[in-house]
Design a protein that fits this description.
By secondary structure, this protein is α/β, with parallel strands linked by helices. It folds into 3 domains: 37 residues, no CATH class; 52 residues; 167 residues, Ribonuclease H-like superfamily/Ribonuclease H (Nucleotidyltransferase, domain 5). It has 11 helices and 5 strands, in the order H-H-H-H-H-H-E-E-E-H-E-H-E-H-H-H. It has a 5-stranded mixed beta sheet. A hairpin with a 2-residue loop joins strand 1 and strand 2. The radius of gyration is 28 Å and the shape is elongated.
């Protein structure tokens, strides 16, 4: 209509002509539409602002967050928004959260090796940090060969306290991850108390080895080995490795070398511990969850005298 208004002498003549041809458009309808284009509604302005914030949260978190976590993060930042609004705008932006793939078994047990007892019996709930650590490792296909990555996770906060990467899956791989966990806690002045910490793993030969058992005993850590062939055994550790493969390894492949995997893993672990929201611990990062725990436990107790 804007293109032909000068030719026909304005909007009204065009509307009359269209009405005569059974296409009824009132001049007021045209002017209202024109005004909406020139002055966007409050909702459209708000939507545009939210689209930018949603895209920022999505991009800065490895492009793996779905609507629930983006909604949580926006509200943590002080942007009050409904979850259904986030879902609608994500559809408009064409972005979705990451979907986990199938589990790949990398651990091979040693039937001849002696095994520690199962001290957890599937009960992974810990009342404080440094009460229960779970361990496992996975593999990453690289151009230079297979890279094995081992993790140690504190079940209280789901924090990755130690990890290591190597082209060999011998016992040293899991020992290095354990050493990092011990060093990490010491550096933060939160060392474990000998006799209070359990190290739980599956029955892989690396975890039933004499070297690891000797190392754990020297540190005052109780060894625990899960039952063989149990699909629910060490589920928390398998969940962490599933996130690692889904959020980092698969989207960034192909991988070229051990050093590339190590650098990327270090960056992902830092994000996972300090910024990633975990629904199982109240939609906060593990480091924040632990900090809240220590803050609460050191608050002075209020007593009332009668």
């Amino acid at each position: 209509m804007d293109e032909h208004r000068d030719r026909f002498g304005g909007v009204e003549p065009i509307c009359r002509t269209l009405t005569e041809h059974d296409c009824k458009i009132a001049p007021s309808t045209y002017y209202a539409h024109k005004k909406r284009l020139e002055t966007p509604s409050a909702r459209s302005v708000r939507d545009e602002e939210l689209r930018e914030r949603i895209q920022e949260v999505y991009t800065s978190n490895y492009r793996v967050y779905g609507a629930r976590k983006i909604w949580r993060e926006l509200n943590r930042q002080g942007h009050t928004v409904a979850r259904c609004t986030v879902e609608r705008l994500m559809r408009e932006l064409g972005i979705t959260g990451a979907v986990r793939g199938k589990k790949v078994i990398t651990t091979i047990s040693d039937p001849a090796a002696g095994r520690a007892p199962d001290l957890l019996d599937r009960d992974f709930v810990a009342r404080a940090p440094n009460r229960c650590w779970v361990a496992d490792f996975t593999h990453v296909a690289a151009w230079n060969g297979v890279v094995y990555v081992s993790f140690v996770v504190d079940t209280f906060s789901r924090r990755i306290v130690g990890w290591s990467a190597s082209t060999s899956k011998e016992t040293q791989l899991v020992l290095d991850a354990l050493e990092m966990a011990l060093w990490q806690r010491d550096r933060e002045d939160r060392p474990h108390t000998p006799g209070q910490l359990i190290h739980h793993s599956d029955a892989g030969s690396q975890y039933t080895s004499f070297r690891l058992a000797e190392h754990l005993d020297a540190a005052g850590i109780a060894a625990s080995i899960g039952s063989v062939g149990d699909a629910y055994e060490n589920a928390l550790m398998e969940s962490t490795i599933g996130l690692y493969k889904t959020e980092l390894i698969k989207p960034k492949r192909p991988w070229k070398s051990l050093s590339q995997v190590e650098l990327a893993t270090a960056e992902w672990v830092d994000w996972y511990n300090h910024r990633r929201l975990h629904g199982e611990i109240g939609h906060v990062p593990p480091v924040e969850y632990e900090a809240n725990h220590y803050m609460e436990s050191t608050k002075p107790q209020v007593t009332t005298t009668i």
